[in-house]
């Protein structure tokens, strides 16, 4: 049996059911699973020093658009609200193909890994020029992250009153057929799965009510989860009320889009009744604070959601609306925004880190991830707290107040993905050069 011993961590933040914090502790990994946590552990396998480090569960990213790493800081979209930003970028994305999807996903996943992320979802809702969900899946397999891609879709183009150009929408029958294909080909429901699939019509303003309803029925037949954007900003609310005669929460409930197998991105503008609905139904929310700031969407009522019992995780969102994909910075931003909105005691550094770990894992239906305990998957982030970021800190375990935002080591299913602060699974400089070449071609 393959064993790795993580030795002598300064602090282990387990995020287990008791939220234990262990000093000078070891973690024994065996065959991709945590075998033991304690002091004085031994192994005949590899030993990795965690001296001077804080160890946490790997972070979990519950909302992303990996293809967007090719369109960061695009002029014309830098200072726009959501709808204007989309209308600027849709024509650029229409020129993508399989190579752009694959390389941009490699870059996005590598960036996440360096920030301590071990499990990421992805929402891919456009498929120009022969691109498929398979392209991003191949990228995740090369990087080595645990992956939960969702087969997104847009079916209502500009000529039918929708937001996206007609060239980026698909026939709804084709969408459902491809959902069946990717679920049958890739979805692994087993504990410890490296790859699971979800279905994710893009948003209420880019698909029909029929597709939303049919996707929900199909997802439950296939045993996969559901994901979409909801209540992201004031424009989103106005569109729902004008087009459907109801708020987004009612729209979601009417179409079967509530329950523990559903998570919605953003939810910045949920009102009290919608928060109660999500709490009762255990519907999850992917909170994307940096993107919400960048697009001027507002501050999501995360404190109210958490207090009501709504499951909340974190998402970096697309790199065209965030411009970064650092999940540790996202967790810090989540903490700071709740303090801005509700006071300095509204969210602690440890609560924000919990949302970024077990909170996200639970939303994605992965209680086997997001916490450090015997029997859980060996998805582990090791943070060096001997550097300048933590110098003078009285509480090195309060990583979001004073700590590094790049991991020293990262393990996924017991395999090392980041070693000494560098991606260990791909030639990252070569991929960065390829990414920049593709971006220059899009600019030209």
TrEMBL record:
Keywords assigned by UniProt, alphabetized: Hydrolase, Metal-binding, Zinc
InterPro entries linked to this entry: Amidohydro-rel, Metal-dep_hydrolase_composite, Metal_Hydrolase, MTA/SAH_deaminase
Gene3D superfamilies: Metal-dependent hydrolases, Urease, subunit C, domain 1
Pfam families with a match to the protein in the record: Amidohydro_1
A molecular function (GO) term: hydrolase activity, acting on carbon-nitrogen (but not peptide) bonds, in cyclic amidines
Domain Amidohydrolase-related: 54-417
Family of this protein: Belongs to the metallo-dependent hydrolases superfamily. ATZ/TRZ family.
Identification of the protein by name: Cytosine/adenosine deaminase
Source organism of the structure: Lutimaribacter pacificus
Lineage, highest ranks first: Bacteria, Pseudomonadati, Pseudomonadota, Alphaproteobacteria, Rhodobacterales
């Amino acid at each position: 049996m393959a064993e790795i011993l993580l030795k002598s961590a300064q602090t282990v933040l387990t995020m287990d059911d008791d939220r234990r914090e262990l000093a000078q502790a070891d973690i024994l990994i065996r065959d991709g699973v945590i075998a033991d946590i304690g002091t004085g552990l031994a192994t005949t396998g590899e030993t990795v020093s965690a001296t001077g480090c804080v160890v946490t569960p790997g972070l979990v990213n519950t909302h992303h658009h990996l293809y967007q790493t090719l369109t960061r800081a695009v002029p014309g979209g830098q200072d726009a609200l959501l709808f204007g930003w989309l209308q600027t970028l849709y024509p650029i994305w229409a020129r993508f193909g399989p190579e752009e999807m694959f390389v941009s996903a490699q870059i996005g996943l590598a960036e996440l890994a360096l920030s301590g992320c071990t499990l990421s979802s992805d929402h891919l809702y456009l498929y120009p020029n022969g691109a498929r969900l398979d392209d991003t899946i191949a990228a995740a397999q090369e990087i080595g992250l645990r992956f939960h891609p969702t087969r997104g879709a847009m079916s209502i183009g500009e000529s039918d009153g929708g937001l996206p150009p007609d060239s980026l929408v698909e026939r709804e029958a084709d969408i459902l057929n491809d959902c069946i294909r990717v679920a049958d080909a890739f979805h692994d429901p087993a504990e410890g799965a490296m790859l699971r699939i979800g279905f994710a019509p893009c948003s209420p303003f880019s698909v029909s009510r029929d597709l939303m309803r049919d996707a929900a029925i199909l997802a439950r037949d296939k045993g996969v989860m559901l994901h979409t954007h909801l209540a992201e900003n004031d424009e989103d609310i106005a569109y729902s009320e004008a087009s459907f005669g109801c708020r987004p929460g009612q729209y979601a409930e009417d179409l079967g889009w509530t329950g523990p197998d559903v998570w919605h991105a953003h939810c910045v503008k949920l009102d009290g009744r919608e928060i109660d609905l999500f709490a009762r139904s255990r519907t999850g929310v992917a909170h994307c604070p940096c993107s919400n700031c960048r697009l001027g969407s507002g501050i999501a009522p995360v404190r109210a959601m958490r207090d009501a019992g709504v499951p909340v995780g974190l998402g970096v969102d697309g790199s065209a609306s965030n411009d970064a994909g650092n999940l540790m910075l996202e967790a810090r931003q989540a903490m700071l925004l709740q303090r801005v909105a509700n006071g300095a005691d509204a969210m602690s550094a440890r609560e924000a880190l919990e949302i970024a770990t077990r909170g996200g894992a639970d939303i994605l239906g992965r209680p086997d991830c997001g916490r450090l305990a015997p029997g859980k998957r060996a998805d582990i982030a090791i943070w060096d707290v001997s550097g300048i970021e933590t110098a003078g800190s009285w509480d090195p375990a309060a990583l979001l107040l004073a700590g590094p935002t790049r991991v020293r080591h990262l393990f996924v299913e017991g395999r090392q993905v980041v070693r000494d602060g560098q991606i260990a699974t791909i030639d990252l400089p070569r991929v960065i050069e390829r990414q920049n070449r593709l971006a220059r071609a899009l600019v030209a």
